[in-house]
């Protein structure tokens, strides 16, 4: 029989990184999704698929606190979404890494300066710590030789790797990637996918919205389909004609 201390420890180890229960997702007064059920555990890698405007980005925006949870309940990295206050949002974001289709790098400064800017904005002060952390994340994405390049001196795939490095700076539990391969050619897209999958294997939870069904078929993972205002997991694997299935 475990004593109470053991029970508490066991419960903490078994805590999901994020969950939604009967969640409603809305853009202003527009209900986009309802009845959303989702549980994200450490190391999970999920695809979000569905037509343009089906609500994938809106779900990600709800998880980051950018839009309020419109109904139901949810939690991300220990923050209750239904009770989230504006002052908590910056702290929630420190537990999240966010990656976009268009990289969103600052084009007027080097890779290293992009990363040091993001670190300092989240409270890192000591120069040595900043330098060490930048080296670590560039190593994780395979870009240690590019620290002093300007973004426009990098390929699209390299720029996305810098964006992923930036997302990793504060060692987030959950990475949210919204169409991360949308601007990349097929071969570069595969490289980004392999990088994201390797991060999940090391324990990061990753949610990736994508229209890239070639990638989904080539690198199968749990897949959630957004359709008609609802989210359902595609059970029994990915249909061979996934692209048609989703149109
Ligand atoms: N800022 C906003 N204000 C009002 N409505 C919005 C806003 N952003 C999105 N919407 C609407 O919410 C719905 C869901 O959009 P969302 O961007 O979440 O879909 P998506 O599945 O991510 O689409 P895509 O595949 O194009 O990225 C759409 O009807 C869209 O028009």
Automatic annotation (TrEMBL):
<feature type="domain" description="ABC transporter">
    <location>
        <begin position="18"/>
        <end position="247"/>
    </location>
</feature>
<dbReference type="InterPro" id="IPR027417">
    <property type="entry name" value="P-loop_NTPase"/>
</dbReference>
<keyword id="KW-0547">Nucleotide-binding</keyword>
<dbReference type="GO" id="GO:0005886">
    <property type="term" value="C:plasma membrane"/>
</dbReference>
<dbReference type="Pfam" id="PF00005">
    <property type="entry name" value="ABC_tran"/>
</dbReference>
<dbReference type="InterPro" id="IPR017871">
    <property type="entry name" value="ABC_transporter-like_CS"/>
</dbReference>
<dbReference type="GO" id="GO:0022857">
    <property type="term" value="F:transmembrane transporter activity"/>
</dbReference>
<dbReference type="InterPro" id="IPR003593">
    <property type="entry name" value="AAA+_ATPase"/>
</dbReference>
<protein>
    <submittedName>
        <fullName>Phosphonate ABC transporter ATP-binding protein</fullName>
    </submittedName>
</protein>
<dbReference type="InterPro" id="IPR003439">
    <property type="entry name" value="ABC_transporter-like_ATP-bd"/>
</dbReference>
<dbReference type="InterPro" id="IPR015854">
    <property type="entry name" value="ABC_transpr_LolD-like"/>
</dbReference>
<keyword id="KW-0067">ATP-binding</keyword>
<dbReference type="GO" id="GO:0016887">
    <property type="term" value="F:ATP hydrolysis activity"/>
</dbReference>
<dbReference type="GO" id="GO:0005524">
    <property type="term" value="F:ATP binding"/>
</dbReference>
